[in-house]
């Protein structure tokens, strides 16, 4: 039976005897190792992002596939990308056991469902223009592994982000990413370092893609959705920084409300001067 580093016994013991201060210090010490593990995996991450980008530029889509912590984090990323970068939710999607409706449920038995992931992809019309990336700390999750196998059998390019070396999922995909985070503070609890690493990699993937696809200018989220007062205020300040000749905040807010965003309001002003 293969050795899973994520399942090895914790480097700490007698946790129930530790003080609050000791527990938080030890958890933080373990967390510090996560960025270093990601740093070692950057070449793999860069290769995966390059492949995803090439497919998105040609009209393909990115599907994340995961269960438990990884699946929930991946789903969260697809939602936040829409708000931050003004996308419509089609370009980056998530496949979660039972569907997104089960996201807040603790139905972890669905991790053993070998058909549901592929069924969801079929329902969304997945083709060989798309790419499917699986998230699995162990690198063995049946739901993820089976979905990726189905994809490969239908000529769909695949990738993965796992936390073990030479896992079965890594060997099944075209573009594996292995972030080796080692034993967890609580033995086997991959919601900790494993989950943290997956969140950081998801941030890297989606942010890099959006920058490369022109959804960021300078260092500003110029396509942010105006969904609440905080985002409206942010958009107004970005607009005024980009257009310093306009310093009437209320006027800018009215423009943004009328035209629906920074770029749209700027296009309107440009049309006036043409």
TrEMBL record:
<dbReference type="InterPro" id="IPR046348">
    <property type="entry name" value="SIS_dom_sf"/>
</dbReference>
<keyword id="KW-0119">Carbohydrate metabolism</keyword>
<feature type="domain" description="SIS">
    <location>
        <begin position="52"/>
        <end position="215"/>
    </location>
</feature>
<keyword id="KW-0456">Lyase</keyword>
<dbReference type="InterPro" id="IPR001347">
    <property type="entry name" value="SIS_dom"/>
</dbReference>
<dbReference type="InterPro" id="IPR005486">
    <property type="entry name" value="Glucokinase_regulatory_CS"/>
</dbReference>
<dbReference type="InterPro" id="IPR040190">
    <property type="entry name" value="MURQ/GCKR"/>
</dbReference>
<dbReference type="Pfam" id="PF22645">
    <property type="entry name" value="GKRP_SIS_N"/>
</dbReference>
<protein>
    <submittedName>
        <fullName>N-acetylmuramic acid 6-phosphate etherase</fullName>
    </submittedName>
</protein>
<dbReference type="InterPro" id="IPR005488">
    <property type="entry name" value="Etherase_MurQ"/>
</dbReference>
């Amino acid at each position: 039976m293969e050795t899973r580093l994520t399942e090895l016994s914790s480097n700490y013991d007698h946790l129930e005897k530790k003080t609050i201060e000791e527990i938080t210090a030890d958890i933080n010490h373990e967390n510090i190792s996560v960025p270093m593990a990601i740093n070692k995996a950057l070449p793999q991450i860069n290769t995966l992002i390059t492949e995803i980008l090439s497919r998105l530029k040609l009209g393909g889509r990115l599907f994340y596939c995961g269960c438990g912590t990884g699946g929930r984090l991946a789903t969260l990323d697809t939602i936040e990308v829409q708000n931050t970068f003004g996308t419509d939710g089609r370009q980056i999607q998530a496949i979660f056991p039972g569907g997104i409706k089960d996201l807040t449920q603790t139905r972890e038995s669905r991790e053993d469902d070998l058909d549901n992931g592929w069924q969801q992809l079929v329902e969304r019309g997945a083709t060989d223009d798309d790419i499917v990336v699986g998230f699995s700390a162990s690198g063995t999750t049946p739901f993820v592994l089976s979905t990726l196998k189905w994809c490969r059998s239908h000529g769909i390019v695949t990738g993965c982000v796992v936390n073990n070396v030479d896992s079965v999922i890594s060997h099944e995909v075209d573009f594996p990413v292995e972030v080796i985070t080692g034993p967890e503070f609580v033995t086997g609890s991959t919601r900790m370092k494993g989950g943290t690493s997956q969140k950081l990699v998801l941030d890297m993937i989606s942010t890099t893609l959006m920058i490369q696809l022109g959804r960021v200018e300078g260092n500003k989220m110029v396509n942010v959705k105006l969904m609440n007062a905080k985002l409206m205020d942010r958009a107004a300040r970005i607009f005024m920084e980009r257009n310093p000749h306009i310093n009437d905040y209320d006027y800018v807010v009215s423009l943004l409300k009328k035209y629906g965003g920074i770029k749209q309001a700027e296009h309107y002003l440009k049309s006036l001067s043409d």
